[in-house]
Design goal:
Structural class: alpha/beta
Radius of gyration: 19 Å
CATH superfamily: Putative cyclase
Strand order of the largest sheet: 1-13-11-5-7-9-10-4-12
Strand content: 15-25%
Number of domains: 1
CATH class: Alpha Beta
Number of helices: 6
Shape: globular
Distance between the termini: 35 Å
Number of strands: 13
Length: about 250
């Protein structure tokens, strides 16, 4: 019997770090402003039954979650059509925390990607690329970052940067720490064209990631797990990375 895969798993467990990239799922979980909090209804407990069981009510795009193409694209794939191999990717993390600290509405530019590649090499085909903004370090109540006029303020992907990743680097998927792909300074004006673009390419994205600063710029692997929901446009996801112990 060939046990080589078991040896690989033992090696991953013993010699690599496993990084949790997912917010705890609860009524307090950070989520997009348009959605209600998760509701939990106890059905039975161990004081009145032999089971503990609860019903959970939430929108699919809640907390750390996956968006399937159908989320915005008519005729796009649903969650049950996402292949297993699309749940595991080589991980590239583009750290723009310094720029975001100086401009809360910072939009990733093509030059940010080119600067990353000068340091770490060409982004590989099929990679999962994360925009590291540091946003997940905020309290849930502060993630929308309202100004005095009631407008939200947080960073996002630029369309040109995303097009370069998709069309020139042929990436597999993207992720970010914020609740939207695009910064609010433009999303309302562009009708969410940046998010539409990535989903129109028949790719998934993961929103509201956390702990991405614990991952190295390159060399890690990300696992994006979620239910095989028939017709699903999105669902809370459990994401994690396996990375070398020395970043």
């Amino acid at each position: 019997m060939d046990l080589s895969l078991w040896t690989v798993l033992d090696n991953l467990r013993e010699n690599y770090e496993w990084i949790e990239l997912t917010h705890d799922l609860s009524p307090e979980t950070p989520h997009w402003i348009g959605w209600d909090n998760l509701e939990v209804e106890e059905k039975c407990n161990l004081s009145n039954s032999i089971f503990n069981a609860s019903a959970y009510k939430t929108v699919g795009q809640y907390g750390t979650h996956v968006d399937a193409p159908i989320h915005m694209v008519d005729g796009g794939r649903t969650l049950d059509k996402i292949e297993l191999r699309e749940m595991v990717y080589p991980l590239c993390v583009i750290d723009l925390e310094d720029k975001v600290s100086k401009n809360e509405n910072y939009v990733m530019e093509l030059n940010d990607i080119l600067e990353w590649e000068e340091k770490y090499g060409k982004i590989p085909k099929g990679a999962f690329v994360v925009f590291q903004s540091g946003w997940s370090k905020r309290q849930a109540k502060d993630m929308d970052n309202f100004d005095d006029e009631g407008n939200r303020n947080f960073p996002g992907w630029g369309l040109d940067a995303l097009k370069f990743l998709v069309e020139d680097r042929e990436i597999g998927a993207i992720g970010h720490e914020t609740s939207d792909t695009e910064s609010p300074i433009s999303s309302g004006k562009t009708d969410y064209e940046v998010e539409y673009y990535i989903l129109e390419q028949d790719k998934i994205q993961i929103e509201l990631l956390k702990n991405v600063d614990k991952c190295p710029p390159k060399g890690g692997i990300i696992f994006c797990t979620f239910p095989k929901l028939v017709g699903g446009s999105g669902y809370p996801a459990r994401c994690f990375a396996i990375v070398p112990k020395n970043k």
